[in-house]
Amino acid sequence: MKAEKTRRSPQPLLRLMPYVMRYRKMVAAAGVFLALAAATTLMLPLAVRRMVDHGFAAADGSFINSYFAMLLALAVLLAVSSAMRYYYVITIGERVVADLRTEVFQRVTALSASFFDVNQSGEIVSRLTADTTQIKSAFGSAASQALRNVILCLGAMAMMILTSPKLSLLVLGAIPLIVFPLVGFGRSVRRRARAAQDTLAATSAFASETISANRTVHAFGAEQAASARYTSTVEAAYDAARVAIRSRAFLTGFAILMVFGSIVGVLWYGAQSVLNGTMTAGTLGQFVLYSVIAASSLGQLSEVWGELSQAGGAAERLSELLSEVPAIRDPQHPVSLPSPARGEVSFDKVGFIYPTRTNAAAIEQLSFTVAAGETVAVVGPSGAGKSTLLALLMRFYDPTSGAIRLDGVDLREARLAELRSRLAIVPQDVTIFAASIHDNIAFGQPNATREAVRQAAIAAQADEFISRLENGYDTMAGERGVSLSGGQRQRIAIARAILKDAPVLLLDEATSALDAESETLVQKALDGLMQNRTTIVIAHRLATILRADRILVMENGRIVEEGTHQQLVAKGGLYASLAKLQFEAGSQSFIAAQ
Ligand SMILES: Nc1ncnc2c1ncn2[C@@H]1O[C@H](COP(=O)(O)OP(=O)(O)OP(=O)(O)O)[C@@H](O)[C@H]1O
């Protein structure tokens, strides 16, 4: 997935052939019109010669008229076939890119947490938009131009040989003189273009990060610094682009000079032949036209080559994404979870090391069981591994050793969708999508009725504030829920979990202090939710801890103490000292001091 590895050549575009071949009929139509347009172009010089040699020589008006009529017919044919070629080729490009975007998005959303630990979301989004756009333009214009020019160039060269083998031999002799320096130049131009493109990729990653964190940027007064940093990366990209443009401009000039210089030379030689009568003027005209066609198509080919090479890089990056296999996926022979669900969770000597942090285990030798309907509070200092425990239970990662079971089935043996349908999570950091409040509560359950959503909101103590919003449940929550307060967002998340009605509830209590009223409301909502469900709660508030049937105290990825509040206080260990800290501070938040 690393950008540096990406080669720049059009070859990877071939990997997209299966996508193109889904639309065989359109491809065939494009091919027909492509060939027709090229053939028509190649016929024009032929007509010109006959007219020069016969039409003018015979001074026959009707002959000239019929020739012009034919030329007009050719022009119409050229116009129609070019328009159709454009239509089909561009449409195929759009279609392929639409398919690619959909598939890449589907793939990416299916990838596991470990993939997103390593890859920046900004970079992936840029692939989804920038890389696919590049491929679209490659298909849409560059590929059709390349094909057209290859056909034209080969056709014109064949016609040159047919028209005058002698002059063609001369041209052939000149080709190496032109091509070798051009190839050399072309390489250095491509190298510079690549440098420019890489600089640009870094720029967009920085922009997307800064824009999505705009509140943090403002809060720390970092606008100027961020702008300055962005400006400097944009300027660096501009400088790199200018270097590339300069060498490209030079290359263009050089190519034109060499090509047309040679044509002038050949023309001069041909003119001598016409003068001494070894060639007709029409033949020379025809030859010159063919060589102009050949030269200009060659010139255009070199132009589109660069574009195709860039698209090749984009295609390679996208096919890497497409071939990425989720680390967490369904087993080949899934075991059904027992029905009806009991909601019994067990960790059996579980060990876990984050793939991105291999030097230390986040969880070690973790064993505990939560009986059906039991409420267990997990407490412990920051970094103890509490959130990791929930992530493992949701199977965002697989344990490195040991096993986690739900109702007696190893999580790795169950179907992912079935497993996750039995777990409802209220995370600490609630995600609110840029959609209506209704859709936010019904997230993951698009078929939920309006009444079911309302009932869930009532149970989550959220109905009252939602009803007071301008459009009630149809109010759009701003992007990431910026228009809602912390307590409101939490109650939306609780309503989401209530609607899901799963047998196991996972709560990651917010550390941020809610105001007293919000806290009471959130607590009331949770009490309703926790009834008759297995609940594992990462607890920060004393009220929650006291409500739990049992408390697990974690430190450095292990369970160091276990029991009820009274038992643990009496024991005088880590829990007792954490509790003492809190009582002295008189705070409602148990571990807030950590
Ligand atoms: N995605 C990740 N990649 C690598 N290491 C991680 C990742 N997430 C957490 N860790 C590390 O794993 C350890 C346990 O983290 P975890 O988030 O589970 O702790 P926690 O007890 O929930 O802490 P807090 O109460 O502060 O949220 C920490 O050392 C943390 O740095």
Short description:
By secondary structure, the chain is of the alpha/beta class.
Instruction: Provide the CATH top-level class of the domain at 3-323.
Output: Mainly Alpha
Q: Give the H and E element order.
A: HHHHHHHHHEEEHEEHEHHHHEHEHEEHH
Question: In angstroms, what is the radius of gyration?
Answer: 35 Å
CATH topology annotation of the domain at 3-323: ABC transporter transmembrane region fold
Round the mean pLDDT to the nearest integer and report it: 83
- Assembly state of the chains shown: single chain
Secondary structure tally, helices: 19
Please name the fourth-level CATH homologous superfamily of the domain at 3-323. Answer: ABC transporter type 1, transmembrane domain
Proportion of strand residues: 5-15%
- CATH architectural type of the domain at 3-323: Up-down Bundle
Q: Can you count the beta strands?
A: 10
Instruction: Tell me the structural class.
Output: alpha/beta
Organism: Rhizobium lemnae
Keywords: ATP-binding, Membrane, Nucleotide-binding, Transmembrane, Transmembrane helix
Domain ABC transporter: 345-581
Family: Belongs to the ABC transporter superfamily.
